[in-house]
Design goal:
The protein has a domain at about 100-300 and about 310-335: MetI-like (MetI-like fold), CATH 1.10.3720. Helix 6 packs antiparallel against helix 7 (about 140-150), helix 6 packs across helix 9 (about 190-230) and helix 6 (about 100-135) packs across helix 13. The protein has 17 helices and no strands. The chain is about 75% helix and about 0% strand. The chain is an all-alpha fold and about 350 residues long.
């Protein structure tokens, strides 16, 4: 197992390097100039108002300060060298360290994603087991239709409808429209603060969970159906074991392997956040920070986000491979490493 893990880690190094090269080039070749964003100038303003022409001296100063006056390959090696030392640079927008801006928003994003994943797995997995154990029953047909409907709904569309119909006094005013707490939060009692937080996070977490909720329940159903058709399940039933014991003890463990694969996306999602949901609901998380950085051409933040998400993705894949052996001891790392 140790040999397998070492080989996978060594394989991840060139993978991460290729990812950083591609993302670096895409960011740099994208239209727009961060120096113009910094100076508050746009091409349109230059055409309509000649008095607001870009000060070339100031622009040259910012390009030198940000290192944008160097060739692309030099910019990449400088960024990579600093990153390997734990320095992700400073934001072009406010000159604050990138790592500080990410860390101060990360608790919100991590909390939302943990709640979302718990909601997804605690509900979707039992529904998948129920549908597989009662295949073609009325309950199975109802849940199948419902899950396909939920899976087909775009999260941004559901979020918009939720704000219009559940956060609007013209329809039903139940939840706040944005943010993570009310303006009077500090003057509330402890239980009022807990309720206020719950009301602010309920819609974002629910909306972000719908697509994954439907997908995982269907995956669980398909995996369970494949397992319960195996010979050892028929043998367990022939021995007189109850259907509940056959499903929960013998079939469930092996059917969890495809579900574990989906856990590989947990780590990057916890750090990367949901760009769409956090932006629509004005949640000050890492996803919203990345969205703002894209519009501001804030390259250090964009690159730091992409690197962290890529790094945690490969780590998540490695952890999933290790969990396979926990769920199914027949999976041998020595065979993989050979």
């Amino acid at each position: 197992m140790t040999q397998y893990v070492i080989k996978r880690i060594l394989l991840f190094i060139p993978t991460l390097i290729i990812i950083t090269v591609i993302t670096f080039c895409v960011c740099r070749l994208a239209p727009g100039d961060p120096t113009e964003m910094k100076m508050g100038n746009t091409g349109e303003s230059q055409k309509t108002d000649s008095k607001n022409q870009i000060n070339e001296t100031t622009k040259k100063y910012y390009r030198q300060k940000f290192g944008l006056d160097k060739p692309l390959y030099q910019q990449y090696f400088i960024w990579m060298g600093n990153m390997l030392q734990g320095d992700f640079g400073n934001s072009f927008k406010d000159n604050r360290p990138v790592i500080d801006k990410i860390l101060e928003r990360m608790p919100i994003t991590i909390g939302m994603n943990i709640a979302s994943f718990l909601l997804i797995y605690l509900i979707a997995v039992p529904i998948g087991i129920y549908s597989a154990a009662r295949q073609y029953s009325f309950g199975d047909r109802v849940t199948t239709i419902l899950m396909f409907v939920l899976y087909s709904l775009p999260s941004f569309w559901v979020a918009t409808l939720a704000i219009v119909f559940l956060c609007n006094v013209e329809y039903i005013k139940i939840f706040p429209t944005s943010g993570i707490k009310s303006l009077t939060y500090d003057s509330m009692t402890f239980f009022e603060q807990m309720k206020d937080r719950f009301m602010h996070f309920f819609l974002p977490i629910t909306v972000s969970s719908l697509g994954s909720f439907a997908f995982i329940s269907r995956q669980m159903r398909s995996s369970m159906l494949e397992v319960i058709r195996q010979d050892y399940i028929r043998t367990a039933r022939a021995k007189g074991l109850s259907e509940k014991k056959v499903i929960m003890k013998h079939a469930l463990r092996n059917s969890l392997i495809p579900i574990l694969t989906l856990l590989g996306g947990l780590l990057p999602a916890m750090v990367g956040g949901s760009f769409i949901i956090e932006t629509i609901f004005s949640i000050p998380g890492v996803g919203q920070l990345a969205t703002q950085a894209i519009f501001d051409r804030d390259y250090p933040i964009i690159m730091a986000e992409l690197f962290l998400v890529s790094f945690l993705t490969v780590i998540g894949i490695l952890l999933v491979d290790i969990l396979y052996s926990v769920v199914d001891p027949r999976i041998a790392f020595t065979q993989k490493a050979a």
